[in-house]
Amino acid sequence: MLAVHPVVPLVSLHNLNYIKPISPHYKTQHEAVKSLVDVSCLDPGRTLQQCICYERGPGFIWSVSVSWGYSVQLYPWAVAPKDLVKALTTFRSWRTRSLGPFTLDTRQLNLDWPCDLPVLFFLDHAARDGVNWNWTTTEYSRDLKQENGCKSPSFSEAFKVKTVRVKAPQMAPAEWKRAPRRQCCKTVRIEGGEILLVQINQCKPGQSSLSQ
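Request: output the structure for the sequence above.
Response:
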């Protein structure tokens, strides 16, 4: 749910004592939530805001979904934006502990079929950009517990990425007083393909944020 937060500011989190840590990088829920709270101090308005872009290379296309300050989902195939904004069913209903119905759009997750799963990255480091103080740089490292069980060449290429580095301008509070929309982003692979660089910007005239 946190990976596909709607286009509204993050206000609060509830019932965290009843779920597993929100990030596999931490052993306790307190540590995991603290990382989200700490990064939110850098850019409160952007916290958990989803941005979608695509990386193309020789013989492959990746779909990249960034939840700022929390996680990155890298799909080694083309996924339509209308599907990327739906939450993967990694959770159950509160009272019945069943897989629905929910009050939000969801996508079924088949844990037994690794070729259906995205490559997951979680927040590892965050700081103000060293060049432009009004920008932030957040880095997300791959969940090392996730194994590449899919033999697709596109998956093998995706698993070469060790870090996703996201650069974004600080979101002005006035943004929420306008008609809210997702911002645009672009990607490029650097460091021999081990780092996927994502830059988030306001959409330019004629440019689509894809998820609108």
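Residues 29-40 form the longest helix (12 residues).
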